[in-house]
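Exercise (ungraded).
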Amino acid sequence: DQQVKQNSPSLSVQEGRISILNCDYTNSMFDYFLWYKKYPAEGPTFLISISSIKDKNEDGRFTVFLNKSAKHLSLHIVPSQPGDSAVYFCAAALLNQGGKLIFGQGTELSVKP
Amino acid sequence: ETGVTQTPRHLVMGMTNKKSLKCEQHLGHNAMYWYKQSAKKPLELMFVYNFKEQTENNSVPSRFSPECPNSSHLFLHLHTLQPEDSALYLCASSQGGLFTDTQYFGPGTRLTVL
């Protein structure tokens, strides 16, 4: 059972436009959500996170929105840049069960000049 | 430059071999993690060590055996692996053992089991 889902395997966006990456989860007990970015041949890099008690967290060009009633979170990148082209993973954490972090399958973002 | 290093970067082994993956972190962190990334599957958490104590074993087969001799080093001992164990194995560390702390990943070891 896939508890964290990224239903879009890929996304293509024009430079300067907004990129919206989506993530759905099934377990209402998740209490922390994270986004990671991964370039080919490198390990993932932490990008931004949000606590389940918040509905928005912003860091520069990156904003994460959390809709708990819909069990949905999204990552907005604006404006998108070619260097943002990478695979983006969302992850959900259960902190009261020993620190388990469950990842989605990833969405490959391509930002075209 | 990443503060988490992994060796070797690539490893090819037969099913009867015994090998070990090594991870070292130079960040003064207290928690270390092993992840597996297979083709077409999400990143999977395998093991968590917090202050050298294993706190998570995510239903990993016993042919994978972790070892954490100190808070800076983490090993993954491999024996009698299967071809489906071929994957990218990533090590990560964080200041604390909870996932609210940023995890810093190493570059990974690309393992191929023949």
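Further reading is listed at the end of the chapter. For now, observe: The longest strand of chain A covers residues 86-94. Residues 3 and 72 of chain A are 12 Å apart (CA to CA).
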